[in-house]
């Protein structure tokens, strides 16, 4: 088993920054901790590393209870946002640091440093100092350093947020490749960027205000979110307040809509989640008349903002030859299968959907 | 940050240097205070305190110490503020070299200033020499070196850099846009200094000033090199009593009073500089 | 820029020069001039000579210079060790304990050095520890006085050190000692160098406590400078003072070269 959190609670003074956190990361799995800042995701990672002490609960790594162990006995690799490469050591010394610290002989260290640098494509920079490298190169060295100790788990704390957008997408592909080449290493990947999480993770744990809100594969969370918070944080979402009808449909304002209601009780308040790209322009199933309030051209698509029954709907439609103008009356529609019914009141209490 | 380590060994590690400090400084200091209430005649009493407090020399020394320190500090504050202001806001070529020079200045001992001032303002020094050369008079007018004013001049010279350093640091953090905004609104330099720069620099000024006040109270080298019988301060009196007169009980009493005065002011300095975030 | 007109700036600079040069530059220049002068009775020194330096680098003066250098080196090394140790161990403690330690180690700054000297005299003039009359009491006094500054600089440097480095090291399996030796101390090296320079300079110029404590066979240079001026030979005193300043500057320069080498930013 990779990493397991068991009812982990961390508090600073009176502020609880991680509340009864339960999560299991399988061996070889990439788990993204996704959430806004202050959601407790970094605290969860630091609890695995041993830099924060839980007030309650246990942390397991590889079947071993490490809750009381100091960081240096935990057998982890870690990459942080600032990389924290030792500025007074050359790249090869940086990468070999963990091995030397653990008493690995010089010759073996050299060999493994070479392997780790080769794995991250940094072999030719072994004799450079960190300050002589670009941000992306420093990032690779930091990953090589963490991997050189052959950790069972790799902890990545916002590793890409110091890079510019182009480098970031390149590094994402690199990380995905590393994951394929190291199938036994579990990765815990902290990020506030949904694209990173959706691209890289086998599963995503969505966090908000010190609590775990949702766990699932990217597809599950995107297609079948369980809470309003997940729906709005993983991808964009139209969230419509509805009442569950008697006949397998819902009522939204004046309109009866077809949507899977599952076992929701008739008459109950609920939220209907429809992704913007599932909303089409013109007549179709579940038609909703409305007024265009805004239109944004995004290259391949147009985003229409349509006001219907006092709610604003986003619709991402393929580029239009002849787009409507603000103020025009239009009809939008969506297929019943593209809608998900969520229990009401599962968003952030003080957050607008 | 809470870490998964027990605190007992950490306390033990901290104990070693504290024990060394206690042996080399705290214990002697306590012993000194103890000596001050243990006269040579045996037993414990405040008799020596009465003698010392009653003596004219002590009262003059206490008065001298306080007023010289206060005057020097005031001088350092004004001079340091003006000089730092020019270096920071009206920079000239070589301003950075001047700032470096100030740093080097701090690494020299204080008594060198007095030694140098003897050549400048002494009875046969530069200033008086110039005067007699120009006017033909037999003697120059500068004879203040062996008065408290000589000590104050030396202390202002030596301690002004201690005010300039925190000020320059504070000025470095002031957003230049603030000054540009103020001057674009039509404010002239004196007004900007008064309403923008001074309020911002007050904490640094207070911290630097109180540090200098403590150091002036404790200054010994400058007074010793002045060599004037008329200028006795508390540290000077400690030295005189202990080394020249071998009157240790009296020296301990003066020392205790000196420590009390300095520690009180130092406490104020710590409080002020903590509020200043220094 | 605060003053916009060219004339205004010139006036401000003139004022600056008028204050700065006589107060700060003149004393040092005068000392150097006096150290080469045979006489000084008038506006300018006269009778240029090297005699004072001749006297300043032999016999008693040379012994004093050696005593000062040895005292400063020993006191700085001890103070740096104790101060760094104290700062590191205080850093690992809780906030309140840390504050108490900072206060304790700053006390020697607040207490007049003369009083610190007297206290050592009182404490170590009798058995069991009889140090009075030996050079060790001078070295002890200097150590105590400069430890405060070493502690203060290292504490400030520790506060600026990014904890991410030691955490990265710990996550890679390095024990605290290894982290200290391989990561924290190397990263602190520039600040330690600066602290060493400060301690050395302070010890070289220490006069107050030394005047209370020095034994006849261990006269540091400042005591000799005072002796010379007190005897009425200020020119010899100036030469000794210039030697004192020059030596201090040389050591500071050497230390700052090491510091630049150790600085990786």
Automatic annotation (TrEMBL), chain A:
Keywords: ATP-binding, Nucleotide-binding, Transport
EC numbers, comma separated: 7.6.2.9
Protein name: ABC-type quaternary amine transporter
The keyword Plastid appears for this protein: no
Transmembrane region(s): none
Superkingdom of origin: Bacteria
InterPro entries, per database record: AAA+_ATPase, ABC_SmlMolc_Importer, ABC_transporter-like_ATP-bd, ABC_transporter-like_CS, Mo/tungstate-bd_C_term_dom, P-loop_NTPase, Transp-assoc_OB_typ2
Record GO terms (molecular function): ABC-type quaternary ammonium compound transporting activity; ATP binding; ATP hydrolysis activity
GO cellular-component term (any): ATP-binding cassette (ABC) transporter complex
Record-annotated ABC transporter domain positions: 3-234
UniProt xrefs under PROSITE patterns: ABC_TRANSPORTER_1, ABC_TRANSPORTER_2
Keyword Transport appears in the UniProt entry: yes
Lineage: Bacteria, Bacillati, Actinomycetota, Actinomycetes, Kitasatosporales
UniProtKB/TrEMBL annotation, chain B:
Protein name: 2-aminoethylphosphonate transport system permease protein
Main location: membrane
Cell wall biogenesis/degradation listed as a keyword: no
Membrane topology classification: Multi-pass membrane protein
Gene Ontology BP term (one): transmembrane transport
Transmembrane region(s): 12-34, 66-92, 104-122, 142-164, 201-228, 248-269
InterPro entries: AminoethylPonate_ABC_perm-PhnU, MetI-like, MetI-like_sf
Recorded GO CC terms: plasma membrane
Entries under Pfam families matching the protein: BPD_transp_1
All copies of domain ABC transmembrane type-1, residue ranges: 62-269
Family: Belongs to the binding-protein-dependent transport system permease family.
Record keyword Membrane present: yes
CDD domains membership: TM_PBP2
Subcellular localization: Cell inner membrane; Cell membrane
Organism: Actinacidiphila glaucinigra
Annotated keywords: Cell inner membrane, Cell membrane, Membrane, Transmembrane, Transmembrane helix, Transport
Superkingdom of this protein's organism: Bacteria
Automatic annotation (TrEMBL), chain C:
Name the UniProt record assigns to this protein: 2-aminoethylphosphonate transport system permease protein
Compartments reported by the entry: Cell inner membrane; Cell membrane
Entry keyword Transmembrane helix: yes
Domain (ABC transmembrane type-1) ranges: 65-255
Gene3D superfamilies: MetI-like (1.10.3720.10)
Source organism of this protein record: Actinacidiphila glaucinigra
Keywords: Cell inner membrane, Cell membrane, Membrane, Transmembrane, Transmembrane helix, Transport
Entry membrane topology: Multi-pass membrane protein
Top-level taxonomic group: Bacteria
Family from the record: Belongs to the binding-protein-dependent transport system permease family.
Major localization listed first in the record, in broad terms: membrane
Membrane-crossing residue ranges in chain numbering: 61-88, 100-124, 136-158, 187-214, 234-255
PANTHER family found in the cross-reference section: INNER MEMBRANE ABC TRANSPORTER PERMEASE PROTEIN YDCV
Xref: Pfam families: BPD_transp_1
Keyword Cell membrane set for record: yes
GO biological process: transmembrane transport
Any one GO cellular component localisation term in the record: plasma membrane
């Amino acid at each position: 088993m990779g990493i397991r959190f068991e009812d982990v609670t961390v508090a600073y003074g009176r502020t609880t920054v991680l509340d009864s956190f339960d999560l299991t990361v399988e061996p070889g799995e990439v788990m993204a901790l996704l959430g806004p800042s202050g959601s407790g995701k970094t605290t969860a990672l630091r609890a695995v590393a041993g830099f924060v002490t839980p007030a309650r609960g246990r942390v397991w790594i590889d079947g071993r209870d490490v809750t009381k162990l100091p960081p240096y006995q935990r057998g982890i690799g870690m990459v942080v946002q600032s990389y924290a490469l030792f500025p007074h050591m050359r790249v090869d010394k940086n990468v070999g640091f963990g091995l030397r610290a653990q008493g690995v002989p010089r010759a073996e260290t050299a060999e493994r440093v070479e392997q780790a640098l080769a794995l991250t494509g940094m072999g030719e920079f072994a004799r450079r100092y960190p300050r002589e490298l670009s941000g992306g190169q420093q990032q690779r060295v930091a990953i090589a350093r963490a991997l050189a100790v052959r950790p069972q788990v790799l902890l990545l704390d916002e590793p890409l947020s110091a890079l510019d957008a182009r480098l970031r997408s390149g590094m994402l592909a690199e990380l995905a490749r590393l994951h394929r080449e190291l199938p036994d290493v579990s990765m815990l990947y902290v990020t506030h960027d949904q694209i990173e999480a959706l691209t890289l993770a086998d599963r995503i744990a969505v966090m908000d205000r010190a609590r775990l809100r949702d766990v699932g594969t990217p597809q599950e969370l995107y297609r079948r979110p369980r809470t309003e918070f997940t729906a709005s944080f993983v991808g964009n979402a139209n969230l419509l307040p509805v009442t569950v009808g008697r006949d397998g449909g819902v009522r939204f304002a004046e309109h009866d809509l077809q949507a899977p209601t599952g076992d929701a009780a008739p008459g109950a308040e609920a939220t209907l989640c429809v992704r913007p790209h599932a909303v089409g322009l013109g007549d179709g199933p579940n038609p909703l008349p409305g007024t265009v309030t805004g239109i944004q051209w995004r290259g391949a698509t147009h985003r229409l903002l349509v006001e219907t029954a006092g709610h604003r709907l986003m619709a991402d439609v393929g580029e239009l030859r002849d787009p409507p103008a603000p103020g025009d009356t239009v009809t939008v529609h969506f297929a019943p299968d593209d809608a998900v019914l969520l229990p009401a009141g599962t968003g952030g209490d003080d957050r607008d959907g | 940050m809470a870490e998964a380590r027990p605190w007992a060994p950490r306390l033990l590690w901290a104990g070693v240097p504290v024990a060394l400090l206690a042996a080399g400084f705290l214990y002697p200091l306590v012993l000194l205070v103890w000596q001050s209430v243990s006269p040579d005649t045996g037993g414990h009493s405040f008799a020596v305190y009465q003698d010392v407090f009653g003596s004219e020399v002590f009262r003059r020394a206490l008065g001298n110490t306080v007023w010289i320190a206060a005057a020097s500090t005031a001088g350092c504050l004004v001079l340091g503020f003006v000089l730092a202001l020019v270096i920071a806001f009206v920079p000239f070529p070589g301003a950075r070299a001047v700032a470096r020079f100030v740093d080097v200045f701090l690494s020299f001992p204080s008594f060198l200033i007095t030694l140098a001032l003897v050549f400048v303002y002494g009875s046969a020094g530069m200033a008086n020499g110039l005067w007699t050369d120009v006017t033909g008079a037999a003697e120059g007018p500068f004879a203040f070196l062996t008065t408290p004013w000589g000590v104050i001049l030396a202390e202002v010279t030596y301690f002004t850099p201690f005010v300039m350093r925190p000020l320059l640091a504070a000025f470095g953090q002031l957003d230049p846009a603030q000054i540009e905004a103020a001057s674009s609104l039509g404010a002239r330099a004196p007004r900007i200094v008064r309403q923008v720069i001074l309020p911002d620099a007050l904490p640094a000024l207070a911290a630097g000033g109180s540090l200098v006040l403590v150091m002036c109270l404790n200054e010994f080298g400058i007074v010793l090199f002045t060599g004037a019988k008329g200028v006795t301060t508390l540290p000077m009196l400690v030295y005189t009593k202990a080394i020249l007169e071998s009157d240790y009980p009296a020296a301990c009493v003066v020392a205790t009073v000196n420590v009390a005065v300095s520690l009180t002011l130092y406490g104020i300095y710590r409080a002020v500089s903590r509020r200043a975030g220094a | 820029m605060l003053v916009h007109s060219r004339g205004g700036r010139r006036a401000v600079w003139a004022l600056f020069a008028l204050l700065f040069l006589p107060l700060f530059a003149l004393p040092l220049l005068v000392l150097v001039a006096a150290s080469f002068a045979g006489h000084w009775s008038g506006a300018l020194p006269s009778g240029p000579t090297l005699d004072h330096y001749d006297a300043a680098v032999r016999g008693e003066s040379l012994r004093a210079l050696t005593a000062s250098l040895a005292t400063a080196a020993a006191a700085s090394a001890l103070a740096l060790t104790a101060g760094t140790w104290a700062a590191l161990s205080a850093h690992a403690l809780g906030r309140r304990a840390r504050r108490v330690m900072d206060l304790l180690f700053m006390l020697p700054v607040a207490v007049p050095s003369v009083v610190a000297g007297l206290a050592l005299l009182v404490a170590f003039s009798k058995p069991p520890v009889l140090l009075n009359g030996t050079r060790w009491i001078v070295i002890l006094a200097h150590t105590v006085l400069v430890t405060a500054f070493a502690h203060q600089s290292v504490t400030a440097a520790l506060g600026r050190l990014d904890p991410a480095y030691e955490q990265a090291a710990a996550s890679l399996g390095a024990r605290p000692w290894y982290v200290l030796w391989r990561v924290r101390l190397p990263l602190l090296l520039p600040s330690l160098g600066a602290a060493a320079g400060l301690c050395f300079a302070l010890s070289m110029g220490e006069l107050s406590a030394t005047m209370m404590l020095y034994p006849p066979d261990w006269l540091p240079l400042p005591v000799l400078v005072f002796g010379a001026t007190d005897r009425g030979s200020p020119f010899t005193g100036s030469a000794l003072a210039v030697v004192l300043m020059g030596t201090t500057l040389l050591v500071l320069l050497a230390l700052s070269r090491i510091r630049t080498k150790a600085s990786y930013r």
